[in-house]
Specification:
The chain is of the alpha+beta class and 86 residues long. The protein has three helices and three strands; from the N terminus they run ββαβαα. It has a three-stranded antiparallel beta sheet with strand order 2-1-3, sandwiched between helices. It is globular and about 30 Å long.
Length: 86
């Protein structure tokens, strides 16, 4: 499986969206400083995950999310996932 994930910084509440085959492990990598763009805002926590059958679908969705560049959009997406799990 392939996943798109959103993580949130405990430092300032900012978000980062990415692609991975193993989101929990990827968050560990973010928190260990493996990614230059997220290194300064550690620690991060996983707040959202979407699952896809193919890598191309996941990467397409990641680009779609990153293109929005809207905190409001991300928070709505995260809230909608939370309400599905209740």
């Amino acid at each position: 499986m392939h996943y798109v994930y959103i993580i949130q910084s405990d430092v300032d509440g900012s978000y980062y969206a990415g692609y991975s085959r193993n989101p929990p492990l990827r968050v560990i990598h973010h928190n260990d400083g493996w990614t230059r763009s997220t290194k300064a805002k550690r620690p991060w926590k996983l707040v959202y995950v979407e699952e896809f059958l193919t890598k191309s679908e996941a990467l397409r969705r990641e680009r779609e999310i990153k293109k929005k560049k809207s905190r409001k959009f991300l928070e709505k997406l995260i809230r909608s996932a939370g309400s599905k799990n209740q």
